[in-house]
Amino acid sequence: MKFLPGALALLFAAMPAAEAQTAPPAKPEAVIQLTPWRTRWAIEAEIAGKKGLYLLDTGAGITLVSRETATRAGCTPWGRLTGYNMMGKRFDGPHCGENIAITLGGIAARPPITGLVNMAADNPKNAALDGIIGLNLFEGRTVTLDFAAGTMTLESEASRAARIAGMRPLRIRLKREIDGGALAVMAAVPSRLGTLWFELDSGNGGTVLVSKPIAELVGMDPKLEDKQPADFEVLGDIRATTPDAFTPDMIMDGNLGMPFLRNWVVTLDLARGLAWIGKPPVPPKPAIPLDQAVKQ
């Protein structure tokens, strides 16, 4: 019995450490469950009291809604915004400025500019979608994309710090078009002649795209019009590897679509222009071959 007081002292001394070990993890602002949409992902959002399903497209640059949704939200579309897709095609149309309030995951936000889109006219298979959510809706926030788990996380400062502790920094640039109202992310890809910049594009469901002028720098054939395999470094042992790559004539170096993004967790600090990348906790499901994907 003479050793009991010492044993009790050790027990009580250990209690704070035990409590610290069981402290709850840092809580993000929101964890949003995504909905599979063909080879991509959609996200539920509420505008003017009505919920709808929107394509989550990190390469879109801006958020786009139907004319019906814009009217319901009290917007009479005005002016003209002009943008170009990655192939250089020009698009013009009216917009709603920063006047559309959007709620998702219990968080309300207003993109700096919202355009109009007719999803059925773009592709009849997308007729059930109400529009497109672009990264400009998350202006100034940190978001984590985990497509293997089918989630998008809006990070708090605390959860951001906890998240990136186990990830690797990824060099990026924030891409701003349409008078600064658009927002997309370009990731650095090394080559023997210098850094290439590839767009991170969740709206590209089935391919990796490499512009003809730089295709040979990543081991691809710029003369081949049909699909070809790609396997090139993005960051150390993190590679863009897919049998479904193309070398079109583009106005950017390249585009990393879902064949790349589905394999990694990516955290984007859209306020500071920083990013991190890591392996998903749950391995992704096997990719759908491109010839099957186009039929969906």
Layout: helices, strands, pairs:
Elements: H1 4-21, E1 30-33, E2 35-37, E3 40-47, E4 50-56, E5 63-65, H2 67-72, E6 78-84, E7 90-95, E8 102-104, E9 107-109, E10 114-116, H3 119-122, E11 131-133, E12 142-146, E13 151-155, H4 157-164, E14 168-169, E15 172-175, E16 184-189, E17 196-200, E18 208-210, E19 228-235, E20 238-246, E21 254-256, H5 258-261, E22 265-269, E23 274-278, H6 290-293
Parallel strand pairs: 4-11, 5-10, 17-21, 18-20
Antiparallel strand pairs: 1-13, 2-3, 3-4, 5-11, 6-7, 8-9, 12-13, 12-22, 14-23, 15-16, 16-17, 18-21, 19-20, 22-23
Please describe what this structure looks like.
With 296 residues, the chain is α+β, with helices and mostly antiparallel strands. The protein has helices at 4-21, 67-72, 119-122, 157-164, 258-261, 290-293; strands spanning 30-33, 35-37, 40-47, 50-56, 63-65, 78-84, 90-95, 102-104, 107-109, 114-116, 131-133, 142-146, 151-155, 168-169, 172-175, 184-189, 196-200, 208-210, 228-235, 238-246, 254-256, 265-269, 274-278. The longest helix has 18 residues, at 4-21.
| Number of DSSP strand runs | 23
**What proportion of the residues is helical, as a percent range?**
10-25%
Strand order of the largest sheet: 15-16-17-21-18-20-19
**Radius of gyration of CA atoms, rounded to a whole number:** 22 Å
Strand content: 35-45%
The number of helical runs is 6
User: What general outline do the C-alpha atoms trace?
Assistant: globular
Summarize model confidence as the mean pLDDT.
90
Could you spell the SSE succession in H and E letters?
A: HEEEEEHEEEEEHEEEHEEEEEEEEHEEH
N- and C-termini, Cα separation: 74 Å
Largest sheet: 7 strands, mixed
Structural class: alpha+beta
Q: Which consecutive residue ranges, at least 5 long each, have pLDDT under 50?
A: 1-22
